[in-house]
Hints:
Chain A has helices at residues 3-10, 13-22, 34-55, 65-74, 79-106, 115-137, 142-155, 162-170, 177-209, 215-218, 230-255, 281-289, 299-315, 317-320, 326-349, and strands at residues 24-27, 226-229, 293-294, 297-298. By secondary structure, chain A is mainly alpha-helical. Chain A has two domains: 23-141 and 192-212 and 229-264, Cytochrome Bc1 Complex, Chain C (Up-down Bundle), CATH 1.20.810.10; 275-350, Helix Hairpins (Orthogonal Bundle). Chain A has a two-stranded antiparallel sheet with strand order 1-2. A two-stranded antiparallel sheet of chain A has the order 3-4. In chain A, a hairpin with a 2-residue loop joins strand 3 and strand 4 (297-298). Chain A is globular, with a radius of gyration of 23 Å. By secondary structure, chain B is of the alpha+beta class. Chain B has two domains: 14-47; 56-153, Rieske [2Fe-2S] iron-sulphur domain (Rieske Iron-sulfur Protein), CATH 2.102.10.10. Chain B is built from one helix and ten strands; from the N terminus they run H-E-E-E-E-E-E-E-E-E-E. In chain B, strand 5 and strand 6 (112-115) form a beta hairpin. Chain B starts with 16 loop residues before the first helix and ends with a strand.
Amino acid sequence: MSVTSWLQERFDIAAVQKFAAKKQVPVFFGTVWYYLGGVSLFLFILQVLTGILLSLYYQPGAATAYESVKFIVSKVEFGWLMREIHSWSANLFVFFIFLHMFTVFFSKAYRKPRELTWVSGMILLALAMVFGFSGYLLPWNELAYFATKVGTDIAGAVPFIGSFLTQVLRAGDEVSGATLSRFYSIHTAILPLVFIVFLGIHLIMIQVQGMSVPEAQENVPPEKKKTMPFFPNFVVRDLMLWLIMLNVIALLAVFFPWEIGLKADPLTSAPAGIRPEWYFMFMFQTLKLLPAHLWFLEGEVFGILMFGVGGIIWLLVPFLEKPKYTKLWTSVGVGIVLYMIVLTAWGYLV
Amino acid sequence: MNKRDPLEESPPGLTSRRSFLDILLGATLFAWLGSMIYPVIRFLIPPKQPDLNVSSLDAGMADAFKRNTAKILRFGRKPVILVRKKGGEFKALSATCTHLDCTVQYKDDTEQIWCACHNGLYDLEGRNISGPPPKPLTPFNVTVKENKIFVTRDESA
């Protein structure tokens, strides 16, 4: 008796096989966008694998964190490779999620019946940014120390629970070794668990509802519509792209390594040219440009509230957008992309 | 005596046994959840560390401190910046930027205090003169006795 028939007697696996065989992927000018979610998924898998490996040597704590990262990259065989892959795939992960989000936004794929897929995706994007922020501190270097001071201070601007949040995040009044323990736990225990739950929901919804096609493609007469089977045609293309990504990351890891920098020291001034990770740059630059006082608010509180409100509106786009105002939403989206690009570039150039 | 079915709808304006039980059950559930969540939230808040009751700080020898330079000192848990001006006098200010908590530094070319994080500028009196900082830096007292520098809390500030 074959394994398949043994299983079939107990579970209806034929139904799954039938589903996989029937699944089709629309082929048109936008098919390439369908790969972005898959690439993000691959980068997440890489994060989990290299993250588990790094955790075997990493030691949280103000006296040990920096030293253990140095030990990993200088003494452990291929330690440098694991850390570089972890850092590079983390950055690319955020990049591809953003790209994925904007292609979904501009192709209006969030519309009924996929509102909740969009919401789950936005939650994943937010979680990815918290992943990045919490992981950034772990090497306990100067840049991370000040980035964390600023980031946790920003949490203090949340109405009503701000100071509670800052206290809980810092594990005290100041960023210290206790903060590091907390961030390590957030980064390696809490976030992976929450992320996998939402990732599961996200993927199940996509499987159940199938791929979204933009309106222009939907109006194409049926005889002109082309599709390819999901399995194996699309899956093989997916895997090939993953392999290419892995090679690109390996090249980046070798030729453009991420520096460890100087060890964090609470008795030094923030160094000139300090900046956060690139995906926070547009917000960082905005905070730099805002005056000390705006209206009745402090400039920074104003900025943080604006980003907070903006994020919530963005999350609720599928529920707020009315077909009448499609063009308006698209131009708002273009405006936001331009704003992000210009302020990021400004932040790096000035 | 006519017995009423306990599951029957009660006349309007009267609370039926069922809705009373629903409220009771809901309240119990709520209290139970609260008793689970409360300890967790209390656990998340770090215990208050007793304030290191520093009132004065020995900042070293005055003649060894070069003019137009500064150093960062630890005053209790907070950093303090001690500047020796071009003229030779000392000035001590809180080194925590009032914008977003970065540690400031002394700029010897413009004789100002600068925060690298978001480009905030203060003058040597601690006044926020440009950039995003919303408030001035808290001043500290500096006294020099027998060539020794002492930084103390400015009670008037």
